[in-house]
Specification:
By secondary structure, the chain is α+β, with helices and mostly antiparallel strands. The protein contains eight helices and 20 strands. The chain folds into two domains: about 130 residues, FAD/NAD(P)-binding domain; about 90 residues, D-Amino Acid Oxidase, Chain A, domain 2 (2-Layer Sandwich), CATH 3.30.9.10. Strands 6-5-14-15-16-13-17-20 form an eight-stranded mixed beta sheet. The two termini are about 35 Å apart. The chain binds flavin-adenine dinucleotide (FAD). Flavin-adenine dinucleotide binds next to α1 and β3.
C-alpha cells in the first residue's frame, strides 16, 4: 500500500490529523493496534481546552460537540475547605473549556473519516516504522497473520506514550524530560447529578480531589491515591466517603452518590521529548508530550 502520510495510532491525535490532512487533499493511512470498539470504549478526557475545540471546528467535526457539549467559563478551586472562583474566560480574554467526552470525540472523528472514505486499519499488530531518515520511509505490520507494508513520504507517531514510534528514534537523537508523580488519580463515573455546575479542583490535608462531569446527569470524580493502591481496594462507599472528606462541608452535603459505572486508577506524569521529529518521523499527541 502507498500513501503520503502513514499515521501510527488511531486515538484522537491520529484520527484528527488524518482528517485535517484530508481537508488539505493529503492522503493518509491510520494504523491502530486495537479494535474500533476498544478505542471507543476508552474512558479518558472529558474536559477539552480551547485549542483542541478550535481544531475540531477547523476539521469540520464539531457539529455534535457544539450541540451537545457544555461550555464552562470558569471553575472553582477549593483550598482547605474554601471555594475560590476562577473566571477563566475573563482572565484569558475569552477562552473557555468544553465538557465533552473523549469517547464522543473519537466517535465523531471515526464518523468523519468514514464519511470521507478515510483509511483506518484496526488490529494492525507488530507495527514498526523503518528507514526514517530516508526519503522513502515505510511501516510494516501484521494483520490476521499476514505481513503488510505501507510506503509513505512521512510517518506520524500518534501512538500515545507507550507506542512504538518514539522508541524507534535512536536514544542519542532525542532527549526526554519526565516527571512521574508518586500518586495516581482514582476516577469514577456515576450516573448522578454533578455536585456543582462547574469543576471543583480541591486541595485538602487528605490529598487532592476533582469534581468533574460529562453532562448534567453523568459525574466524573477523582481522588488522589498512592500508586500502589488497587481499584479493588476502593468500594464505591469508601470512594464517596473519601471524596466528601476532601470537599468543603457545604459541597459535601450536596453530593449525590450512586453506583460507579467505571472505576480506574490513572498514574500521573509530565513528559516532553525534544526534538519531536527524527528524519521523516514526526511525533504527535501523547507520544510527544503529556501534561
Ligand atoms: C483518566 C484520564 C483522564 C484524562 N482527562 C483528560 C481531560 O479531561 N482533558 C484532556 O485534554 N485530556 C485528558 N486526558 C489525556 C487524553 O486522554 C490524552 O491526551 C489523549 O488520549 C491523547 O491522545 P493521543 O491520540 O495522542 O494518544 P492515545 O489516546 O493514547 O492514542 C494512541 C493510540 O495509539 C494506539 N497504539 C499504541 N501503540 C500502538 C502501536 N504500536 N501500533 C498501533 N497503534 C498503537 C493506541 O491503541 C491508541 O488508540 C486524560 C487521560 C486519562 C488517562
Amino acid at each position: 500500500m502507498k500513501t503520503k502520510v502513514g499515521i501510527i495510532g488511531g486515538g484522537p491525535s491520529g484520527l484528527l490529523l488524518s482528517q485535517l490532512l484530508d481537508l488539505k487533499g493529503i492522503d493518509s493511512v491510520v494504523l491502530e493496534r486495537r479494535t474500533r470498539d476498544y478505542v471507543l470504549g476508552r474512558i479518558r478526557a472529558g474536559v477539552l481546552e480551547q485549542g483542541f475545540t478550535d481544531l475540531m471546528r477547523e476539521a469540520g467535526v464539531a457539529e455534535r460537540m457544539d450541540a451537545e457539549g457544555e461550555i464552562h467559563n470558569g471553575f472553582e478551586i477549593s483550598d482547605m475547605g474554601r471555594l475560590h472562583h476562577i473566571d477563566l474566560k475573563g482572565l484569558t480574554g475569552g477562552d473557555t473549556v468544553m465538557v465533552y467526552g473523549q469517547t464522543e470525540v473519537t466517535r465523531d472523528l471515526y464518523d468523519a473519516r468514514e464519511a470521507r472514505g478515510g483509511k483506518v486499519i484496526h488490529e494492525a499488530m507488530d507495527v514498526q516504522p523503518h528507514d526514517l531518515t530516508s526519503d522513502a520511509p515505510y511501516i510494516t505490520y501484521t494483520r490476521d497473520g499476514e505481513k503488510c507494508r505501507v510506503d509513505c513520504d512521512f510517518i506520524v507517531g500518534a501512538d500515545g506514550f507507550h507506542g512504538v514510534s518514539r522508541k524507534s528514534i535512536p536514544e542519542d537523537q532525542i532527549t526526554e524530560y519526565e516527571k512521574v508523580y508518586p500518586f495516581g488519580w482514582l476516577g469514577i463515573l456515576s450516573e448522578t447529578k454533578p455536585v456543582h455546575p462547574e469543576l471543583i479542583y480541591a486541595r485538602s490535608e487528605r490529598g487532592f480531589a476533582l469534581c468533574s462531569l460529562r453532562s448534567q446527569v453523568l459525574s466524573r470524580y477523582y481522588v488522589q491515591v498512592p500508586l500502589d493502591d488497587k481499584v479493588e481496594d476502593w468500594s464505591d462507599e469508601r470512594f464517596w466517603d473519601e471524596l466528601k472528606a476532601r470537599l468543603p462541608e457545604d459541597v459535601a452535603a450536596k453530593l449525590e452518590t450512586g453506583p460507579s459505572i467505571e472505576k480506574s486508577i490513572a498514574p500521573l506524569r509530565s513528559f516532553v521529548c525534544e526534538p519531536m521529529r527524527y528524519g521523516n518521523l514526526f511525533l504527535a499527541g501523547d507520544a510527544a508530550h503529556i501534561v
